[in-house]
Amino acid sequence: MAKMLEVQLSDKKIKIASRWKGNNLAVHAPIRNGKVQRERAYWVITHVQSGLVAAIMFSVNNAIKVAREWDSLFDEFDSNKPRQWVMRDDWIKVVDLAGC
Predict the structure, then answer these.
(1) Is the dihedral angle over the CA atoms 52, 58, 60, 63 positive or is it negative?
(2) Segment 21-76, tens digit of pLDDT
(3) Full-prediction pTM beyond 0.70?
């Protein structure tokens, strides 16, 4: 059974099933107009605590691999101060290399 995840939309939060969920990051199908898209051309990595998107990737396998490797590194992430996160530049490079 998939672990549920609360995702922040522009006007509300919704609960959806995740493909993989760690302590800080989760991978799930994209959402459009408040609904999960069945045509999965890409996958989303979301920060669990804030429900905000951390990355978008074209491969579910890459998304899960990156999310697993980085899950513990997001312990120190503060969604109120994302630009001050010490791992920010490294995260951007990893996401770019993984196929975002």
Answers:
(1) negative
(2) 999 999 999 988 888 887 767 899 999 998 888 999 998 999 999 999 999 999 99
(3) yes
Q: Classify residue 58 as left (phi > 0), alpha (psi -120 to 50) or beta.
A: alpha
| Backbone phi, psi, residue 40, to 5° | -90, 85
Separation CA 66–CA 44 (nearest Å) = 11
Query: What H or E segment, with its residue span, contains residue 88?
Result: helix 88-98
Domain that holds residue 51: 4-98
Measured between alpha carbons, how far is 17 from 37 in angstroms, rounded to an integer?
A: 12
Measured CA to CA, the distance from residue 67 to residue 69 in angstroms comes to 6
